[in-house]
Amino acid sequence: MHIIKRYLDNGYIDMPSIMHEPDLPFMFLWGGRATGKTYGGLKECAKYYDKTGERFIYLRRTDKQLTMCANINTNPFKPINNDCGTMIYPGSVKNIGKGFFRGELNEKNEIELTNDLYGYMASLSTIGNIRGIDFSDVWCVIYDEFMKMPNERNMKNEGRSFADMYESINRNREFGGKDPLKVVCLSNANDLANDIFIYYDLVSRAEWMLKKDRYQYLDYGRGIALLRFDDSRISEQKQNTALYRMLGTDASYTKMSLGNKFKETEIPTIKSVNIKEYKPFANISGLTFYEHKSDNIYYVTTFKSGTYEHYDDSEIDRKRFCRKYVGLWASHMNEHVYFDSYQTLRVFENLFLN
Length: 354
What we know:
Shape: globular
Number of domains: 2
CATH class of the largest domain: Alpha Beta
Distance between the termini: 41 Å
Radius of gyration: 23 Å
Number of helices: 13
CATH architecture of the largest domain: 3-Layer(aba) Sandwich
Order of helices and strands: HEHEHHEEEEHEHHEEHHHEEEEHHEH
Number of strands: 14
Structural class: alpha/beta
Strand content: 15-25%
Helix content: 25-40%
């Protein structure tokens, strides 16, 4: 079995080795806060541009996040510039939006941007607005923080938007013998059943990695790599820093940031039930809804049995389902709805919230 080299000798993530791993165009990296995912990824993109002239795209989920990065003071290249002496800063790209340019000092010792464009900036929520633009100069997308934070809003059809983004940039390059676009998705451990993992059926595989204490999963048939980094010795060292000493090892934030513990492990409504005590009444989005035969509780699962009302995945049917069974949401809030997995719970919530 092939093993990807995940760490440098200093304990930080070996992003160059990971990013240039062949035959795996879709790479999902999570866990291990401040272990060099974004830093190493952008540093390698800059080096690769200097070497080949091929550019990258720095992608965020929302326009608001992107706007914060498109500022000289919050520039994601800021620590790289400080450490390596590079001068890479955000600026405007005609007809596209924002990008990263090489800077230089003028006679007044002020930073001026040159026309030397390293890469582009975009958000998943609005990248559809730049469809039709030729991105054949782009070899890699760095999708930073692809798992949404708890305080962030859901994005409608996020998984589909990710596919549209890839198709718009990749186009037909593979027909000409070129390598497919590489997408490197980065995140800290926030939400295992995120919309990307749900859409591409990766939640159960990621859960398996956690339960079996595996740190990589490579699917060459689909071109997917799942890599987790909560075993970094940088994470161990961070336990002795001020914030984590104050929080303590049992705090949920500590477990999420350093131990890669996901919130689904703490949800009491994810459980197994005796399905014989329930009767099915509806099916939508791959989920079957059951009602207890003698109690006012429900069970939602991917398991199908019996006779039920079927709804397809069209917008109209989703609205019909939510109107008819709006009471399910109140039952969910009262913890009277049980789920067979966290992915099922998230699909259920997306039905009512999106």
